[in-house]
Amino acid sequence: SYYLPEKLSTIAEVRRKAEKEMRKDGGDVPYPDWDELRAEDEENAPQVMLVIRDDKGNLVHRVPASRSKGLHRAVWNLREPSSNPLRLTAPKELAPWESPQRGVMALPGTYSVALAQLVGGKYKELTATQSFDVMPLGLSALPEADRADAYAFQSKVARLNRAMRGSISALGD
Q: Which of 132, 95, 99, 88 minimizes the C-alpha distance to 113?
């Protein structure tokens, strides 16, 4: 759970808000010039994320979160990011029996989380890190030693999958 005192706005949203205030006060609203419109069009929307790190400080996952004002809740599914390459096109709708691509399940241990923002290409952590423990529920069929070996194997397969898909994509290009 986290609280944002104000929304992280895009350049266009800030301009529209200022124009709304000008209209409300009865003033003239200037039309933006080409450079301002181009900057608005090329701007990446601000992002808020939960940054999850392991006990060694290695980045595990970035969980996207809401950038609007107020109290929010974001959930990490205890998985690393998928090893499949990113696609710039919108994802297709999945059939009811399909699931989205998922990464390797994180090992039990101590992790930390911090709230961060990415605005105008600048990354900034908004909060201090908070530690938390991931514990097994005891429902697993794998003993503790096998769990670490399984994680190592799944991570190796994920790296191989990523290299293979990258090669196939390069070959296609």
A: 132
pTM (predicted TM-score): 0.71
pLDDT tens digit sequence for 42-61: 888 889 999 999 999 999 99
The residue assigned the tokens 């709708």 is 93
Q: How far is CA 120 from CA 2, 33, 36, in A?
A: 22, 20, 14
The share of the chain scoring above pLDDT 70, in percent, equals: 92
Length of the chain: 173
Q: What is the CA radius of gyration of the chain?
A: 22
Quote the tokens at residue 165. 């898909």
What residues are paired with 111 via a beta bridge? 54, 132
